[in-house]
Amino acid sequence: MKTDRKRILRKLFFSTLYLSAFTFGGGYVIVTLLKDKFVDQYHWIEEEEMLDLVAIAQSSPGAIAVNGAIVVGYKLAGMAGVLVSVLGAVLPPMVILSLVSLCYDAFASNPYVAALLSGMKAGVGAVIASVVFDMGKSVVKSRDWLNIAVMGASFCISYFWGVNVVLIILAAACLGVLRALFEGKKGGKP
User: Fold this and answer.
1) Does 89 fall in a domain?
2) At CB < 8 A and 24+ separation, what contacts does 155-163 make?
3) Which of 50, 69, 97, 130 is deepest in the core (most CB within 10 A)?
4) Rounded CA gap, 124 and 104, in Å?
5) How many CB atoms neighbour CB 32 within 10 A?
6) How far apart (Å, rounded) are the C-alpha atoms in residues 79 and 185?
């Protein structure tokens, strides 16, 4: 039992370390990589549950990469999993940013670095589009028309009217609570 837990903690640490070290372009990029690693490769989490964990990570304050590591770590190994996964998620950016800050003056004026960063924008955009597509596809596959309507309305309200994402998240959370209360009463639960 203890060796199994140690194995999970070790895999959790190295997985979050690897994902954090090779994820460029912001926290949303890591969402699809978390799914690939923990749902598709290790089969530790179901896809539906991963969507719930991602929703929690996105709606919590802070960096989504760290929030994602926290919720996945807690789900898999409790508080030890949280500590191990957060350490794995935080180490690479801390080391890389420390090194970059030491050499910032040389990087800031280097045309090769500027060209490299400019080229990475296209790749990052593609990965973010992939995350949106995967999450949207899962919502549509659920055939839950209320969730599909909320997804479409959230997109339109945010994109066309520029409503703050925090307000959209709060409204969606309120709808979720109301729905849970309504379905609970309908099913005879308090």
Assistant:
1) yes
2) none
3) 69
4) 22
5) 19
6) 34
The percent of residues above 90 in pLDDT, for the chain, comes to: 29
183 inside domain: no
Is residue 178 domain-resident?
A: no
Number of H helices, E strands in the chain: 8, 0
The answer as to whether 187 is a domain residue is no
- For the chain, the helix, strand and coil percentages under 3-state DSSP, each to the nearest 5: 85, 0, 15
Which among 9, 29, 21 is positioned nearest to 132, based on CA atoms? 29
Q: How many domains does the chain fold into?
A: 1
Average pLDDT, the chain: 85
Backbone φ and ψ of 184, nearest 5°:
-65, -45
- Amino acid identity of residue 25, one-letter, is G
* Residue range of the domain that includes 79: 2-104
